[in-house]
C-alpha cells in the first residue's frame, strides 16, 4: 500500500491551489496513537498558519474569560478566597503552556491527528459563576468530567450520538449557536465602544466606533467569501479591526500589563493549601457531590459540540478524504485526559473540542496535525511573552475574530444543511426549543422527536433500531433534564437572553 510520501505531489503539478489541497486530504493516512512525522505522514502548508492564528486568538479570549469567571465566582462563594485579574492571567498562562505541549503538539500533532485539539467548552462559561456558588471545586469538576468522558468514549457513545443526529437537527443547532453567539459578540463590542472617551481635553463618546468596525468587517468578510478566500477572514478581519480601532482613537484603551515570564508550574502551589494558588486546597467529598451535575452537563454538551466541528470538515473536504475527518471518540478521549491533567497541574479550563481551530482549518481545507503543531507553538510563545495576550483579548480583536471565525460560519453551515422541508422542520423545532430552554436540551429533545418520526423525515425511524429510536435518545433527554434541574438551568436564563 502506497504511503502519503509516495503519493505526495508538488503544488506546481496542479491547476490551482484548491486542487492541491484536496489531493493532500485524499492521500493522507494518519495513524492512531502512533508516531506521525512531517514529510512522511503530513506536510506543512502556509494555509496552516490561518487556523493556528485563529485558534490562538480564540483560546486566549476563552481561557481568560473562564479564569476571570472562576476568580469572581470563588471570591463571592468562599469567605477566605480573594482572587483577581493577576490570578486569572497566571492560571490562563498555565493552561496555555503545559496542555499545549502535551495535548496539542504531541497528542493531536504527532500521535493521533484524527483527534481534534482539546480546547475550551464555550457554552459552559456562563455557568461558571453558578458552579462556584454551588460549592463545586475546579479540580473535583475536572476529575468527574474526565471520568465520564472516558466512559463515553470507551463505549463509542460519542460517535453513536453523532450518527443519531440528523442534518435538520444539527443544522438548527448550528444556526442557533451561531446566531446567539454572534449577538453576544456584537453586544460586547458595542458596549466597549460606548464606554470609550476621547483621550483629549474635550471628553466625548466614541460609541460610533463599534458600528464602524462591524460595518468594515461585513464588507471585508463578504469580499473574502466572494473570491474564495474566506479562510483568511480571522487574521484579515482581526488585523483590520485592530487598525480601525487605533485610527479611530481607541488606542488609549489598550494597555500592555502582562509581563514576560513563565507562571508557577507546581501543582502544590495551586492546590496545596488555602493560602496560595486557588486558595481552596484539595477537594473533599462535598466538593465532588456539588460538582456532579455540572460534570454530567458538560459531557452531555460534548456530542453536539463535536458534531458541529466535524460537519465543517465534511462540508469543505472533498470526497475520499474520510481518513482525515476528526474521530469523535478519540477527540472525547483526548479531551478527558486533557481535562484531568490540565487542571491537576493548576489550570481551571473546562475542555471541549477546539472550535476556533477546527472551523478555520476545515474552511482552509487543511487536516489537523500541521496546524496543531503551529498553534501549540504560538500558544506557548504568547504565554511566555505575555504582552500579545493583551492585544488578543482587546474587545475589537477578540470579538471580530470570534464573529468571523466561529459564529458566522456556523450560521452558514447550518443554513446549508437545511435544504429539504423535512430538515427545515426539524431545524425549526430545535431552534425554538433552544430559545425556550438551552441548546443542549433542544438537541436532546429534537433528536428524540426526529428519530421517532414526530418531526423531520418520516422514513428515518424505519432505518433505526429500537435502541437508536427510543432507548438512547430518551436516556439522553432524561439525563439532560435531571442535570439541568439540578444546576438551575431550566429557569429561562440560558437561551438567547443568556447570551445578551
Automatic annotation (TrEMBL):
Superkingdom of the organism of origin: Bacteria
Keywords (alphabetical) are: Membrane, Transmembrane, Transmembrane helix
Key word Transmembrane present in the record? yes
- Report the transmembrane regions from the record: 49-70, 91-111, 131-155, 167-186, 206-224, 231-252, 288-307, 368-386, 392-411, 423-449, 469-490
What name does the UniProt record give this protein? DUF3360 family protein
Q: What species does this protein belong to?
A: Pseudotamlana haliotis
What lineage is this protein's organism placed in?
Bacteria, Pseudomonadati, Bacteroidota, Flavobacteriia, Flavobacteriales
